[in-house]
Amino acid sequence: MPAEGVGSDPRRRTTPARWRVLGHPDGMLIYQVRCIVENHGWTEPAVEDRHKIVLGRSGAYRRRLNGRVGLSDATSVILTRPGDEMAVAHPFGCGDSYTCLEIDPAALADRPDAEHWMDRSGWAGTSDAPLDLAHRLLVAEFRRGLDGFEMAERLHRFLARLLSYSPLGTGDVGGDVDRAVRRRPATLAAHRRLADRAREVLANSGFALGLDEVAREVGSSPHHLSRVFQRMTGSSLTAYRNRLRVRELLDTLAEPDGRPLGALAAEYGFADQAHLTRVVREQVGHPPARLRRLLTASDAA
């Protein structure tokens, strides 16, 4: 049986959405959510009552976590603990989707890798391609159907991988940037705003805009934007754009309709099917056809 509170219906605590509970073994609850945007403004702040991991799948929104505003998208990972305060806004006119894992403190108490999480306030960062694929494969396995024993073991393994990946206490690449430009706080703030604005445009452009168009959207030159984005995020604009569209593509590959890869290449702004295949291989190490087989759930729900 799930631990008290963790097994309760999560729909009572969040904004309107379509839900799918995937499992709730041994004091843990995992579910998928696709938000339904009814109000583009900020929600009322909600105080978290459990340890929670939110893994982005598609779309973008703004979050205010313990007073700090940031952008969440398909690359985002958020870890919260009881007492953290969260509000969200959807100014981009689209819903987002994510996977959420809620964990009872008793399930974390004997984990040395969770000590930092237990003792600090909310953390927000990004996942790399292998971690994102591990998350999606985990969801696919849960949707196919597992018994409670295997659910629990798989969740603990995934949690170990995520906690070893997440630099809890250090945050994003921005920590190094903070130190590098500590004497110019106004410049740092301006650069953060520019990088976040570029992320917003890329996440909501449908991958149809060129670099010059993205730069115009954010009021910058292509050269300046490219330099600042690399400095603030540790990633080039091209690499970040590829991460976004591969993750959107993985969501589509998990659907049962089986659209041709050539059509998907055009939809997601790749030069052709060969280009799509090459970028996907570079990102996650598998061709799209294999990923479609791995990610497609065979259940009837």
UniProtKB/TrEMBL annotation:
<keyword id="KW-0238">DNA-binding</keyword>
<dbReference type="Pfam" id="PF12833">
    <property type="entry name" value="HTH_18"/>
</dbReference>
<dbReference type="InterPro" id="IPR050204">
    <property type="entry name" value="AraC_XylS_family_regulators"/>
</dbReference>
<keyword id="KW-0804">Transcription</keyword>
<dbReference type="GO" id="GO:0043565">
    <property type="term" value="F:sequence-specific DNA binding"/>
</dbReference>
<dbReference type="InterPro" id="IPR018060">
    <property type="entry name" value="HTH_AraC"/>
</dbReference>
<dbReference type="InterPro" id="IPR018062">
    <property type="entry name" value="HTH_AraC-typ_CS"/>
</dbReference>
<dbReference type="InterPro" id="IPR009057">
    <property type="entry name" value="Homeodomain-like_sf"/>
</dbReference>
<keyword id="KW-0805">Transcription regulation</keyword>
<dbReference type="GO" id="GO:0003700">
    <property type="term" value="F:DNA-binding transcription factor activity"/>
</dbReference>
<protein>
    <submittedName>
        <fullName>AraC family transcriptional regulator</fullName>
    </submittedName>
</protein>
<feature type="domain" description="HTH araC/xylS-type">
    <location>
        <begin position="192"/>
        <end position="294"/>
    </location>
</feature>
